[in-house]
Amino acid sequence: MDSDAIKKRTQETAKKLFGKGIKMDPPYLTWKEFDRDLANDLSMFITGNLYSRTVLTLPERQMVACAMLAALGAQEELRLHVNAALNVGCDPRKLAEVFFQLAPYGGMPLVNKALEVYRDVLKERGEWEAFKGTP
């Protein structure tokens, strides 16, 4: 695939993931401050090649990303990806369940941090009241 096609696919995928919801700068902007060319290469690989693969759907990829970031305790990155997960149609209840699944493997402190991030994102998106009222 030529670089123009990868660039287009990167932009399309990034828009689906990060084009709405909470307002926060993606890590790409920080990367770019240090090395513009490397930032572009990383973005095209991660968003243009990896995230656009079809073995997993975007919602499945985002649930995996959220689980990994929660397990690592990477709260700022988790905030970005929780928003992206909701943007691409992840079931909000399943996403909460992903965080509860951390309990036996990472412990309750990670579950608590992940749920706090999730709640904050839902509040910022104006979706918390609808979410907390469902079983």
What does this structure look like?
The chain is mainly α. It has a single domain, classed as Up-down Bundle (AhpD-like). 76% of the residues lie in helices and 0% in strands. It contains 9 helices and no strands. Helix 2 (27-34) runs antiparallel to helix 3, helix 4 runs antiparallel to helix 5 and helix 5 crosses helix 8. The chain is globular, with a radius of gyration of 15 Å. The N and C termini lie far apart (46 Å). 26% of the residues are buried. The mean pLDDT is 93.
Outline of the structure:
The protein is 76% helix and 0% strand.
Features:
135 residues, mainly alpha, 0% strand, single chain, AhpD-like
Q: Tell me the major beta sheet.
A: none
Continuous helix count: 9
Q: Which CATH top level class fits?
A: Mainly Alpha
Tertiary shape: globular
Q: How would you spell out the order of helices and strands? A: HHHHHHHHH
Query: What structural category characterises the helix and strand content?
Result: mainly alpha
Q: Indicate the mean pLDDT.
A: 93
First-to-last CA distance: 46 Å
Percent helix range = over 70%
Please tally the β strands and state the result.
0
What is the CATH fold-level name? AhpD-like
Q: What portion of residues belong to β-strands? A: under 5%
**By CATH's scheme, which homologous superfamily applies?**
AhpD-like
For the record, the count of structural domains works out to: 1
